[in-house]
Amino acid sequence: MMGAHVGIISPSTSSFFPRFPPTSLIKTKTRIKINTSPICSINMSMDPVREWILSEGKATKITKISPVGGGCINLASRYDTDSGSFFVKTNRSIGPSMFEAEAHGLGAMYETGTIRVPKPYKVGELPTGGSYIIMEFIEFGASRGNQSILGRKLAEMHKAGKSSKGFGFDVDNTIGSTPQINTWSSDWIQFYGEHRLGYQLKLASRQYGDSLIYERGQRLVKSIGKLFENVVIEPCLLHGDLWSGNISSDKNGEPVILDPACYYGHSEAEFGMSWCAGFGASFYNGYFEVMPKQPGFEERRDLYMLYHYLNHYNLFGSGYRSSAMSIIDDYLALLQA
């Protein structure tokens, strides 16, 4: 999602509340354990970030703290120490649930051992209100790196990151500042129709009173099964919000992806933000060398873009409505729905 690293939860009714993990979060699908025990004892540190870095972070001194730009929801800082650098995000408005969900996603991607992502270390509460996440600091290179390598590495992650639970994720998270519901399902078409397109359509109806896009969108949801005939769909670990702002490279030119909205889904859904990701032919060639293109890929491409156009409509207003409506109308004509 453009313009934000991660999001603030802002549902207006209880039916829109996502399932965030408890503060005793421990990864069950990966070996990474994120320490998220609440900071509530009488010995509470007034600076838990500094406390962790100087203890579990193995540093004896912090030499410099520098602001890092790029986000519009959280404050980001680089902590330089005598044992290396750490990347820290803080949010003074919300508890640790949002960062715990981010840590889940980063941890899952990290454990595939494929594409480089920042390793999450610690999530916790700030004593004056709000929360923080500490993760590995990655020194970025001058460019986004080789597109072909990015495509291959992403495909390797999709191939390695599988789930026996089906489609979804252990926790709900956010796409921008919109809740993203990840309740497990054995049926991808049902999952995508209900928890992706259906959720956004309901949000547009409630937020804008847009009955037209809701009604036409629901007609489409009931008909999308035709687009998946003769397609094998396996649950793959997805970054979930892969646009140019969440793609970089390290100082050695290896691709890096960050700020995820992870879940297990159809691999093609990863390209839903390709309209602002700048993927070229070499990216797709590299990807399909590892994950072969399936029949009907081109016909489904806009279906996966629709989720993100709807989300941008709900987040940023009517400037994205026409793109979403155009995709819906084109599919209704194609499917004769």
UniProtKB/TrEMBL annotation:
Keywords: Chloroplast, Kinase, Plastid, Transferase
Matches recorded under Pfam families: Fructosamin_kin
Protein name: Protein-ribulosamine 3-kinase, chloroplastic
EC number(s) recorded for this UniProt protein: 2.7.1.172
Cellular compartments annotated: Plastid, Chloroplast
Family designation: Belongs to the fructosamine kinase family.
Top-level taxon in the UniProt lineage: Eukaryota
Subcellular location, principal: plastid
Signal peptide: none
Gene3D superfamilies xrefs: 3.90.1200.10, Phosphorylase Kinase, domain 1
Catalytic activity, as annotated: N(6)-D-ribulosyl-L-lysyl-[protein] + ATP = N(6)-(3-O-phospho-D-ribulosyl)-L-lysyl-[protein] + ADP + H(+)
Biological source species: Stylosanthes scabra
